[in-house]
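call fold(seq) -> tokens
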Amino acid sequence: MRKSDGRTPAAIGFTVKSGWASVVLLTGPAASPRVVSSCRVELSDPAIPESRQPYHAGFGTARSAGPELSQLVAGVKRFGRKSVSDLIRQYQAGEHNLYGAGMVVGSLIDPKTIANDHIRIHALEGQLFRGVVQDAAVRSHVLCAIWRERDLYGSAAAVLKRPELALRDELKAIGAGVEGAWRAEQKMAALAAWLVLATGRRQSS
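ret:
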């Protein structure tokens, strides 16, 4: 754990999707957070469209195991880790004391337990992309907490001691001056970062 150096506490929130993530850098204190930055980070190479859904060979069809799939997955890991690591490094170099990162994902189900082929390949891609973000955070010495989308607001209401409706109003308000989109993905990323600030999960040494 790193001791505070007098800088303003901050946390990163990620809402992870297939091939990309919404990212919000939130600064504290937790009682009145403020958005410093909101952006999109690519987790797959835009020059290789297939890498956005590497386990898909077509709509609802799984890509067969083999060199092509292995290359796509390896490319996602390489590209995504660099994209996220570069962004974290940029935030670490700023004027804020980075406490950690919060990640919001659709599911945490082990793909091996899913019998339906179509659902399983979506789960494999979810596992891949959240792993890319988590691995980049760990390599950057940043602790990373994970919440499922369906659990996020309930967890936040308990931790932040605010009704869910009040949280939604506050998230809308803190995004009012943010450039670009401020939709569900950005709000969830901001809420994950807010939870990290509130729980005091600091950057690891």
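The chain has one domain: 8-199.
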